[in-house]
Amino acid sequence: MAAKAVSTHGERTCTVEVAPSEVDAGAELTVTVRAACPHGCDLTGQRVSIQSEHDTELASGALSELVLRAPLEVGEHVWRAVLMAHETNGIRHEETNTGFRIVVVPHATSVNVWGMPSAIAAGERFSFKVGIKCSAGCKLAGRTLCVLDHDGAQIATASLREDVWPDTSALYFVAVEAQAPRTAGDYQWRIESSGSEAGAPHAAGACTFVVKVVEAPDHEVTVEAFDTEKQTPIKGAHVLLHPYRALTDERGVAKVKVAKGRYTLFVSGFNYIGHESIIDVTSDITARAELTVEPEENVDIR
Prior knowledge:
This protein has three domains: 8-105, Immunoglobulin-like, CATH 2.60.40; 109-214, Immunoglobulins (Immunoglobulin-like, Sandwich), CATH 2.60.40.10; 219-291, Immunoglobulin-like (Sandwich), CATH 2.60.40.1120. Helices cover 0% and strands 54% of the residues. The protein is built from no helices and 26 strands. 21% of the residues are buried. The model is unreliable at 1-6 (pLDDT under 50).
């Protein structure tokens, strides 16, 4: 029986692309392997094995895009794409491999603050909401955070609740209570949440926010917002006596406690031209704001 003639071609070249270039720990990534023979052979269907730095096979299949899961260990990992030895139609390709790297990063955490009062009387207690979300949507219930004041002193701690903020997929939150400084001014405070290595590693998160402190209010300003033409109350109009803010109720009324002084009163509502006036507050007063509906724009349909 005649021996089968086998021709061995030179080493195949192999290129590897990884997406994304930096991947969250434990998240999916795509490895695309392409190969070429110096003699122009059709390499369709030839097998490739993706192996870790410890020579563990992570995935295998025909030359194509392979979807893998990143390790939980943060840092740079050097993997290999191994093109298996292959023989067909008397042509043999020897095994070859190409190293490539992936960079695993901890899950990022974004920190948000909302529900802050527009102005807080000096020394008063106030509350606000803090929410934290993981870039991979991980459950963060129980994760702790701390509130640092303008001097860097820790003034409050809290743990995220089990449930998420309504209409969000993974924004875990908690209500925080704190006491305002005793001197009026704008103060920059900070929320910090430390990183975690338990399970999927998470990076530390932080954000800054402004606490606007004013002198204790002396008087109450009652603002009445009415439609000029209909003489009907306007519900939900925005009232601003900087830095104090409020919204009018069903009766078109908003009550704002302010410190003694001169203020510019702004009142605005949807589809209304804003109202502006100067008021001097030396006692409890009532201010009426009549708002005119914005004129409709003339549309040329020619």
